[in-house]
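Sharing in case it's useful to others searching the archive later.

Someone asked me privately for the predicted structure of Catabolic 3-dehydroquinase, so I'm posting the question and my answer publicly. Question first, with the sequence:
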Amino acid sequence: RHILLINGPNLNLLGRREPHIYGSTTLADVESHAASQASSLGITLETFQSNHEGAIVDRIQAAAGWGPSSSSTSSSASAGETQAVKKPTAIIINPGALTHTSVAVRDALLGVDIPFVEVHVSNVHAREAFRKHSYLSDKAVAVICGMGVYGYTAAVEFAARHMKVKEE
Ligand code: DQA
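And my answer, the predicted structure tokens:
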């Protein structure tokens, strides 16, 4: 099993932004904990964070070995070319605000046909009304919210041990 953990806009500020809502754990802590948790479960894990919707779409496509048809720079480091080494068996995604806005992220996840778990640190249902709607939840295998950063730990455990893996 191989997990891709994606964090969307502003999650690079985890631990610093609105700590009364999101807590004091940083994204670096979340990612390194997830990586060691994965290795103790005998699986591999990659992480990706971006504040840019298109970069997240590119990364999801790259997970399936696809990518933008023409990359602007030729040889080096374009997301579509370099990162699709290993197809994830599952994606864990906290899309941040893109949860509530992005048909493009939804379409990318459906396009690559990789099962995914949606994670939110906060309880999105106990906040502003616009956070109640998610463009992903009806297609997610599972949705976690309100557990704080423990939600990532729960998602990794679930994806590693309990989630059905698609046969290719
Ligand atoms: C979030 C909830 C979203 O509504 C918000 O825009 C975020 C973080 C969460 O983890 O609780 O950026 O996804």
